[in-house]
Design goal:
Rossmann fold, globular, alpha/beta, 2 domains, eight-stranded mixed beta sheet
Length: 385
C-alpha cells in the first residue's frame, strides 16, 4: 500500500465546515483509492480561540476538540498528527513516527505550502505544492511578499488556465500541473429535499487576504464582485439566502444586501462543522455563487469546491464565469454569468426548468469531479517514481 502525506490547516479554522471539507475530499478520496494516508496539521497558541472566539491557550481552545471531532467522525483515527505550540507537543502520531512515515511515503501533498517544517520536507521523496487559491500565492511570490512556492519538486494548481496567454496568473517560471478539485460523491448523494427555496450560498464577504496591486492592476476580493449583483433578489423576485461571514465594519454592505432582499444567516448556525455544511447544501434548492475579483479578473479557470458539492448533491449552480467554460459543460445544471443581465437570465432558467437542471448537476459532478477520477488522474500527471 502506498502512502500519501497531506499537509493542511483544519485545526486553525474551527467552525468552518466548508474549509474542512476541502481537505476531507483529498484525505477520504485517497483513502477510497486504497492509499495509506497521514494528515499533518499545526496549531500554535496564537491561533487558538475559545467558544466566544477570544484568543486563548491551546489547552482551553475549541481548536483541538474541533480537529479531533473531525478526524474521529470521518474514521481518520491514527491517520493524523497535530503539532501544537511550535512543535513542543504532538497530538496523534508523534514526531519520530511522522518522520518514518514521510520517509516511506510516495507523495507529500503540501496544500498552499502550509507545511514549513524543513526536516519533514527534507524527508519526502516527492514534495508537491497544491495551490487551491490561484493568483494570490503566485503574485505574492513575484512581489517578494511570501515564498511559499519554494522547496517543492512539483507544482499543482486548480487554476486550470495558468500558462495560457489570456490568463493573468503569473507562472513564476514554474511548470504547473492542473487539476480540478475532487468531491467524494459517496459522501454527497443526490438530494431531492429542499428546505430553502430559491438560491443559497456560503461565503466570506472579504476573507483573510487583502487586494493585491500587481503589474499596474489591483486584484480584489469577493466583496468587489458581489456588490455588482446585490440587486438580484429584487430584480428576479426570487428568494436568495447567504450564509455570509461579514464583519461589523461592513455594516453598510449588510444594510444594502438586506434592503435588496437578501436573507442573511449566520454561518456559525448553518455550516460550522462539516456535517452542518453538508446538511445546508443538501437542504438548498440551488446555488448562486459570486467569485473573488482575483479569480474573475485573472481568468484563471478557478472553480469553487463548494459549487462542486452543490453539483454532487443534485443542486443546480449559477456561478460567475472565471474562464472555466472551455473545460466543463455549461447551460444545464451549471450556468455561468458575466453580467447582472446574464445572472438574471440564469436564475429564471433554473427556476423554470428546475428538475432537468438538478439531474444535470449530478451528472456533471460524477463525470468531471468524482474524487476517484480526479485523484487517479492527478497521480498519473505527477509521474511519481
Amino acid at each position: 500500500m502506498e502512502t500519501i502525506i497531506i499537509a493542511g490547516s483544519i485545526a486553525q479554522k474551527p467552525w468552518h465546515g466548508g474549509h474542512t471539507w476541502v481537505f476531507l475530499q483529498y484525505l477520504l478520496g485517497f483513502k477510497k483509492l486504497g492509499w495509506d494516508i497521514l494528515f499533518l496539521d499545526r496549531l500554535e497558541s496564537g491561533m487558538c480561540v475559545d467558544s466566544a472566539g477570544t484568543p486563548c491557550s491551546t489547552e482551553d481552545s475549541v481548536n483541538v476538540p474541533y480537529f479531533l471531532q473531525v478526524m474521529e467522525g470521518f474514521g481518520l483515527n491514527g491517520a493524523y498528527s497535530l503539532a501544537c505550540d511550535n512543535g513542543a507537543r504532538y497530538i496523534g502520531r508523534q514526531r519520530n513516527e511522522v518522520l518514518r512515515t514521510i520517509e516511506r511515503s510516495t507523495l507529500l501533498l503540501n496544500v498552499m505550502g502550509f507545511l514549513r517544517d524543513e526536516e519533514f520536507l527534507g524527508k519526502a521523496r516527492n514534495r508537491v505544492f497544491l495551490d487551491i487559491d490561484p493568483g494570490f500565492g503566485q503574485m505574492w511570490q513575484e512581489l517578494g511578499l511570501h515564498a511559499s512556492l519554494t522547496g517543492h519538486d512539483k507544482y499543482v494548481t486548480i487554476g486550470e488556465n495558468i500558462g495560457r496567454p489570456d490568463c493573468g496568473i503569473p507562472t513564476c517560471g514554474l511548470d504547473w500541473i492542473t487539476t480540478p478539485q475532487p468531491v467524494i460523491t459517496d459522501y454527497w448523494p443526490q438530494s431531492r429535499e429542499s428546505g430553502v427555496d430559491g438560491f443559497t450560498t456560503v461565503a466570506s464577504w472579504r476573507g483573510s487576504y487583502g487586494p493585491i496591486p500587481f503589474r499596474g492592476k489591483t486584484y480584489g476580493l469577493r466583496v468587489h464582485e458581489f456588490r455588482k449583483y446585490i440587486a438580484l433578489p429584487k430584480l428576479t423576485g426570487m428568494p436568495f439566502e447567504a450564509a455570509l461571514d461579514i464583519a461589523p465594519s461592513d455594516a453598510e454592505d449588510r444594510k444594502s444586501l438586506e434592503k435588496n432582499g437578501w436573507r442573511l444567516v449566520n454561518p456559525r448556525i448553518t455550516s460550522s462543522d462539516p456535517w452542518m455544511y453538508q446538511a445546508y447544501i443538501a437542504g438548498s434548492n440551488a446555488e448562486f455563487m459570486v467569485a473573488k475579483n482575483m479569480y474573475v479578473e485573472t481568468r484563471g479557470g478557478w472553480f469553487s469546491d463548494r459549487s462542486i458539492c452543490y453539483l454532487a448533491s443534485g443542486k443546480p449552480v449559477v456561478v460567475q464565469d472565471t474562464g472555466f467554460n472551455c473545460r466543463y459543460p455549461t447551460g444545464k445544471g451549471l450556468l455561468t454569468f458575466g453580467s447582472l443581465e446574464e445572472a438574471i437570465s440564469c436564475v429564471h432558467e433554473v427556476s423554470g426548468n428546475y428538475r432537468s437542471h438538478a439531474n444535470a448537476a449530478r451528472e456533471i459532478a460524477m463525470e468531471y469531479f468524482d474524487s476517484s477520477k480526479v485523484l487517479t488522474s492527478l497521480v498519473n500527471k505527477l509521474c511519481l517514481n
